[in-house]
Design a protein that fits this description.
Blueprint (H helix, E strand, L loop, with lengths): L4 H17 L15 H17 L4 E7 L3 H7 L5 E6 L3 E2 L3 E3 L8 E10 L10 H7 E11 L10 H6 L4 E6 L15 E6 L2 E7 L7 H14 L9 E3 L7 E2 L5 E6 L3 E7 L1
Parallel strand pairs: 1-10, 3-7, 4-13
Antiparallel strand pairs: 1-2, 5-6, 5-10, 5-11, 6-7, 8-9, 8-12, 12-13
Helix pairs in contact: 1-2, 4-6
The chain binds 2-oxoadipic acid (OOG) and magnesium ion (MG).
The site of magnesium ion has 9 residues, from strand 1, strand 5 and strand 6.
């Protein structure tokens, strides 16, 4: 579609404000049904520009909708890519203020930290594993800025893939000797099991999601530098949370991650 620059700016402002005010907006494809992926990533880039102008910094990259469970939950078939910012980081065992969010959900993810840069096209699991410094367990808190958490892919990409908060666990593991496909993940909400998965739920291997992200960035002429923190996408479906909820996620051989919503 190639949206006019003014409209890109206007839609980015609307979504950025929806996040700042914790008030949902209608999905932007209602007004712009022909919005395509390039338009959507242009809006995401404009949101980044706005946040950086406020002094906020990109803290990492994320892949989303990389598991069957998530694709089914959101009714889509293709992964998406987004940005994580410094202010979204919450310490392990920390508190998250529910009033700052619209309708948060939590999802368990395996995160990668790179020791060398990755560049597509042709990036694959082997290249990702060779470039990985270590993996850490993580929980992403997503919070769509759209009413009722309902959106299509283009609207979701424009909304920076619902990025909102993230918590990283303290156990860093080398990928050597760790089978990320069979690694079990158990999420508990208020002491009861809310979701379970194995690493293979994410595109057969979480490193495949990282390779996909690298190849998608290559199409825009970008590489992923050494040191980048990358979340590979929710292995389980996302679980809604409200103030008062406690989340505890155990990752086999990787420790656990927890948080409380207040
Ligand atoms: C889009 C973001 C999905 C994941 O890990 O699948 C995502 C959404 O479902 O709101 O972060
Ligand atoms: Mg996620």
């Amino acid at each position: 579609m190639a949206l006019d620059k003014d409209i890109v700016r206007q839609l980015a402002e609307q979504l950025d404000n929806a996040e700042l005010n914790a008030r949902p907006v209608s999905k932007i494809t209602d007004a712009y049904p022909k919005l395509d992926w390039d338009d959507a990533y242009a809006i995401q880039a404009e949101i980044r520009r706005r946040k950086e102008a406020r002094g906020q910094k990109v803290a990492g990259l994320k892949a989303g909708l990389t598991s069957r469970a998530k694709m089914k939950q959101m009714g889509v078939e293709t992964p998406v890519f987004g940005l994580i910012f410094d202010y979204m980081s919450v310490p392990d065992s920390g508190e998250i203020k529910a009033a700052e969010l619209i309708h948060p959900k939590v999802e368990a993810e395996i995160a990668f930290v790179l020791k060398s840069a990755l560049r597509g096209p042709g990036c694959h699991i082997g290249a990702v594993l060779a470039a990985t410094d270590f993996v850490v367990p993580a929980v992403e808190i997503i919070d769509s800025r759209y009413e009722n958490f309902r959106f299509d892919l283009a609207s979701g990409i424009a909304d920076n893939t619902s990025s909102s908060r993230f918590v990283v666990g303290g156990v860093a593991r080398s990928v050597e000797g760790l089978d990320l496909r069979t690694l079990g993940i158990v999420m508990q909400k208020n002491g009861e099991i809310a979701a379970m998965a194995a690493g293979a739920a994410v595109l057969g291997h979480p490193a495949a999601a990282v390779a996909m992200l690298v190849n998608a960035m290559a199409k825009r002429g970008e590489e992923v530098p050494a040191g980048t923190f990358i979340m590979s996408g929710g292995a389980t479906e996302a679980i809604p949370v409200v103030a008062g909820d406690a989340i505890h996620v155990r990752f086999q051989d990787m420790g656990s991650v927890s948080m409380r919503f207040v």
